[in-house]
Specification:
about 230 residues; alpha/beta
């Protein structure tokens, strides 16, 4: 397996770096179009649009597509272990952004270790600001303290991380249906880790909303010197 890495050129020599990542692999049981083709495609589109807009960020943005997430976060663990982490100020991680029965989920920064918790909460607030300003409901959900997704090796290494998602095999509540529509008492993604996770499993409206939120956070971190100071 391997990681794919692409760097922007920052406006300032020795500038800080924001790592924007998603995992490229899927489970053997299915093609993994939502998990995690949706996140991988989102990161690629953000990279393409950043180039097309001609934005020269104050902070460099490093786009990383991690391998082997599904077998123990191997790609992101390897990246953190072999990379000079000095100058990396944040990780944004995108995993499952197009679940058919979706909810807008923002990961709770209070799940980060104490040393990075304040900045994790700031990253959480970036996503919250985006959704609130557009009148879009969202839930704050726990960040895993044992694995979860590729943000985990970063927070373990002392780098603050933020993430959004649309739900996996968990069940949408009645309150969730009221907030986000869809079907209560049904999984966010019934095809999670199954053969039916094909292009037919993508909720395009959810994907558009979540990619826009992801891009907002990336641009804020890359261009606004007042973030994560």
């Amino acid at each position: 397996t391997w990681n794919v890495v692409a760097d922007t050129v920052a406006a300032e020599v020795g500038a800080e770096v924001v790592v924007v990542g998603a995992h490229l692999d899927s489970v053997p049981e299915g093609p993994g179009i939502n998990d995690n083709g949706s996140g991988s495609a989102a990161v690629l589109e953000m990279a393409l649009q950043l180039a097309r807009l001609g934005v020269t960020p104050r902070r460099a943005v490093r786009f990383v597509w991690f391998g082997a997430e599904e077998v123990g976060l191997l790609g992101s663990r390897h990246y953190v272990n072999v990379t000079d982490l000095n100058g990396i100020v944040a990780n944004l991680n995108f995993d499952m952004l197009a679940s058919p029965n979706y909810a807008r989920m923002v990961y709770n920064g209070s799940g980060c270790p104490e040393a990075t918790r304040a900045k994790c909460l700031e990253l959480q607030a970036l996503f919250g600001t985006y959704f609130r300003e557009r009148g879009l409901a969202y839930d704050v959900v726990p960040m895993s303290t044992t694995g979860g997704s590729d943000y985990f090796p970063f927070v373990r290494a002392g780098i603050p991380a933020g993430s959004i998602a649309t739900g996996a095999g968990g069940v949408k509540s009645v309150d969730g249906r009221a907030a986000f529509g869809g079907v209560a008492n049904a999984a966010y993604d019934t095809c999670y880790h199954n053969a039916c996770d094909t292009t037919a499993n993508i909720n395009s409206a959810a994907l558009a909303e979540m990619v826009a939120a992801a891009a907002y956070a990336m641009i804020e971190l890359a261009t606004n010197a007042d973030t994560l100071v």
